[in-house]
Amino acid sequence: MNRFPIGIFDSGYGGLTILKALEKAFPQYDFVYLGDNARAPYGPRSFETIYKFTSEGVAFLLKEKKCRLIILACNTASARALRQIQQTSFQPWAEEGYRVLGVIRPTIESLAPFSRTKHIGLLATSGTVASETYLREGEEYAPDLTIIQQACPMLVPLIESGECHSEGTRFFVKTYLEELLSKDVEIDTILLACTHYPLIKEMISKIVPSHITILPQGEIIVNSLKFYLERHPEMEQLLSKGGQHLFFTTEESHAFEQAARQFVGRAISATTVNIAGMTLDRDC
């Protein structure tokens, strides 16, 4: 029986925080990571552009790396491209048992136990906030929650520039938090709804009142994948288990390797690829 790796796609580096959590929880599985760093960040881009770029990334993982299960470890891609991909160009692949999953629905379904007041603050990119996907998914899958959004357009560029501990980053973090908390005094949990933000979790924790819980997505996605594979043993049986991790990027590989260290905590080796123009056409 042929077996296949799990694909992880992100617009840049943030998805590496999800991969790091998955590697720890599932050391036996093979993972293939693709970061579309050359075209990051996705947050300010149009819906059509995000859909096009995400489709190209998914196509690469399907066609070139033979991934059977793909996780969009990017909130912006999950918010603005996942549903259209699932309902249109990915359909022929789905009929053959391939799956592409996002991070938003499993996050929403997991939030309630973390909050006493059921008022959740959300820090995210402008694209994720504008999509209102968290609000819609919350109404459907967690109607008892009140979700308050805050766009943080400066944080991803600062984090990817290695400015995680700078005064400039602290200024913007403090500004965004003050704006968020001013919208609802009952917020007792803040979701880091961008996979870059765990790198500044400590800074955020020092700024907010001590009763507020700061929640990154890594462990949520780990638990969600565990549950998914338990419910779908037919998929679990098709996953390869050699403990191999491969890294691909659309930017210069050395630059990716250097920047990725702060996200995964170790040295990695990456390969530069060109995914522009790839399609989900089953005949290609």
Task: Describe this entry's structure for a reader.
The chain is α/β, with parallel strands linked by helices and 284 residues long. The protein has two domains: 6-104 and 219-272, 3-Layer(aba) Sandwich (Rossmann fold); 110-216, Rossmann fold. It has helices at 15-25, 47-64, 75-80, 82-87, 91-94, 104-110, 126-131, 133-141, 155-160, 167-183, 201-207, 218-231, 233-236, 253-264; strands at 6-10, 31-35, 69-72, 99-101, 119-124, 146-151, 189-192, 213-215, 245-249, 270-272. Strands 4-3-1-2-9-10 form a six-stranded parallel sheet, sandwiched between helices. The protein has a four-stranded parallel sheet with strand order 6-5-7-8, sandwiched between helices. β7, α11 (201-207) and β8 (213-215) form a beta-alpha-beta unit. The longest helix has 18 residues, at 47-64. The relative contact order is 0.20. The model has no long low-confidence stretch (mean pLDDT 95).
